[in-house]
Structures are given as C-alpha cells and as structure tokens.
C-alpha cells in the first residue's frame, strides 16, 4: 500500500512539473522562446546593407580566418578600406593583441638552459612592415610585381612593426632562441640582415632563406621542411609567428602558432 502511495505521489509531482513546463514553454510562450522568435524575425526580414565598409570588413575576416582560400588581389571596392585599416589604429591594435597573446603563452613555457627552446618568426608583415611599398602599389590591389618588390627589399628600409619588435626582445630576455624563417631568397641575405638591424632587431640564431633547392616549392612545404630540420637538430619549437597561414601550417608545427593580420596579399 505504501509503495502504491509513493508511486502515485511521484507520478503526480512529475505530471505537475511537465504540465507546468509545457504550459509555460508552449501554451504560455516562455520569454526565451519569445526571444528566439524575435531574433528569427529580425534575421528573416533584415536586409544586409550594400555598404563597402561592411562588405570589406567581412572580406577581411574571411582572409584572416583562411576561409577565402587562394586569392591574388584585394577587391577593387576594398582599396580604401584596406588603406584605412593598414594605416590606422586598428592594424596597430590587432598586431599588439597578437603580440600580447604570444607573450602570455611564452610566459607559460619553462625555458630550459640548454638553448633549445625556439621561437620562429617570419619577416615580411611579421617583423618588418612593407607598407611603404604597398602604399605605392595599391595596397594589394595590383598583381604582385617581383622585380619591383625585390628593388624595395634591396633598399633595406622596411620599418619594424612596433608590437613585434617589443615581443621579439621580450622573448630574447626570457631565453628563447630566435630563428628567422622567410620566403625571401638567399641572394637577399645581406639586404635582409641590414634591414633587420636597422629596424632594431639583433642576436637571432639563424636567418633561413630560400636556397636553389627550395625554388618552386609552395611556402607551406618550404617552411615545414625548414622547421623539421630545426626539430631534427633537437630544437623544441615553442612558438611560431607569421602573417600567412603558410607560415604556420603543414608539419613540424610549433607548440603554439600566432597569426598576424595581413589583408594585402596571400601566399600559399
């Protein structure tokens, strides 16, 4: 008899709970559902403005997340947007945010005294800014001119990206061994070293450039192979900083990789 009474009591409580929940969520329309219905109506009827700034900001998002895939030049309608972004406070702020997160991770690494804890940096649009060149070449709206860019590299006047220079020095102070891994060619070594020193960088362990055997390789393959060589030497690649996904992806990847902003060009 007691068992039956307990069963009836539990059944009554359960029925009351279900009935109450049902009346609130379906018959009474709960506030949560009302919110969902309202949101649904907004998205169903809202028209996306035909606005260049909005379009170009969304385009930049697809670039930075690598959703855009292979692309060669920025959309013509986005030239002013990219100009404003790269020459304004937003680019500096985004670069600083990446540097801050990089340093936060670096602070979690127990750096050994053996000198084998490495940090790999790309150079162009990572440590050095080629913005003076791109100001004169449409901010990435023109097909890449290798001859013109090589001439710019030979001038060795690219300025440092301030947040990256600060990060570079902080990592050195913490005992990381710095490697520079760039897509520049071996014949540009002297100009690259001169530019790096002029911009404030020093005491890197090794500057790695494309040699004759690397000609024709995609950047992802080339940089992966060079990182693998470092690993084979016993280095522990703790961090890797680059403005291109091809700087960071592939094999022999770092413990943590950090992508800097660059809406001006894409390298596979």
TrEMBL record:
Q: Which SUPFAM superfamilies does this chain map to?
A: HAD-like
Q: Which residues form the signal peptide?
A: 1-23
Keywords of the record: Glycoprotein, Signal
Q: Does the keyword Glycoprotein apply?
A: yes
Task: List each coiled-coil range.
Answer: none
Q: Look up the domain of life of the source.
A: Eukaryota
Family per record = Belongs to the APS1/VSP family.
What is the protein named?
A: Acid phosphatase 1
Read off the lineage from the record.
Eukaryota, Viridiplantae, Streptophyta, Embryophyta, Tracheophyta
